[in-house]
Specification:
With 309 residues, this protein is mostly helical. The protein has 15 helices and 2 strands. It starts with 13 loop residues before the first helix and ends with a helix.
Length: 309
């Protein structure tokens, strides 16, 4: 049993619930990862260890010692508080964030650019001094840049693809720096999933969540091993992924033909400088720069409060 489990009460925890709300809001936005929020708020290791504890040993404990012992083993109060926060955030903020991304894409992207840049700094500061760290960091940057230039293929929306999309997206969502929403975009499943959430299509939501649970249980064990046995290289790779993902969230984008994006979820884009963007529309660079700073400072503030907590 992870040591962190012994430190957690079995009931709902307000601070963890609020972290879950922040994680849910981040996971809705392509380019921002809920895992990043978990990391900078100081609950990432506990999250991974708690998820890893949801195994056959917990099931045996349930039948041999009762629900209370199993609940304590899997750190149930922590997981329930976090999942309630994520669920509430996704259900309540999906429509609002979707509206903001549609009507104020530059401002929203700038704010999240600042968030990710500060997150990269915080993850970098936690890398143990080790030889070859820069190589791992560059590998992470290269991986994120490769993801950013991949274009989606056609994928039908059916039970199998919804389940599979959930399994793949959750692996990205749990990693700092890789956005599960962006993976859904690559698969062509972002719009169907967001639409299902907006319309409360419980059948599709349940299928997607089942895929998420399956993928998470399979992936979290590998991630736990890497966090405990190869923490330095993993953090270096994740720092690189965060830095590389800045290309995804860069505010000023035009289509391949140099026109404004007509669809905020389109993947037919390339990054340009504000001056080049000004040929097509107002780059709003002063407001964007201000929101980058706000996002950057907000992450540092959250990390400071979480560390004291």
């Amino acid at each position: 049993m992870p040591d962190s489990h012994n430190k957690s009460p079995g009931g709902l925890r307000g601070g963890i619930f609020l972290r879950g709300v922040a994680m849910g809001a981040a996971d809705i936005v392509p380019g921002v990862s809920g895992g990043t929020i978990a990391f900078i708020t100081g609950i990432y290791d506990q999250l991974i260890d708690s998820l890893k504890a949801c195994n056959l040993a917990a099931l045996k404990l349930l039948f041999s010692n009762g629900p209370a012992a199993a609940w304590q083993y899997v750190n149930g109060g922590f997981l329930l508080s976090l999942l309630l926060g994520i669920g509430l955030s996704v259900l309540s903020l999906a429509r609002g964030i979707s509206w903001a991304l549609h009507h104020h894409p530059l401002l929203m992207a700038s704010f999240f650019f600042g968030l990710i840049l500060a997150s990269a700094l915080l993850v970098y500061r936690q890398i143990p001094h080790a030889r070859g760290a820069w190589l791992y960091l560059l590998a992470g940057v290269g991986f994120a840049l490769l993801i950013s230039v991949v274009r989606p293929g056609e994928m039908p929306v059916n039970a199998l693809t919804v389940f599979g999309a959930g399994a793949l997206a959750i692996c990205a969502m749990i990693l700092p720096g890789i956005s599960g929403s962006f993976i859904l975009l690559l698969l062509g499943m972002y719009e169907p999933v967001i639409q299902a959430i907006k319309s409360l299509d419980m059948g599709m939501i349940a299928l997607f969540m089942l895929g998420c649970a399956t993928g998470l249980m399979a992936f979290v064990r590998l991630l736990s091993y890497l966090m405990h046995q190869h923490r330095g290289p993993l953090l270096a790779v994740l720092t690189g992924v965060l830095l590389g993902s800045l290309s995804i969230i860069w505010p000023w984008k035009l289509t391949g033909s140099g026109q404004l994006l007509s669809d905020e979820h389109s993947l037919d884009w390339h990054n340009v400088l504000p001056g080049d963007y000004a040929v097509q529309a107002d780059p709003q660079w002063l407001f964007c720069l201000g929101l980058m700073v706000v996002g950057f400072v907000l992450v540092l503030f959250i990390e400071t409060v979480a560390r004291r907590d």
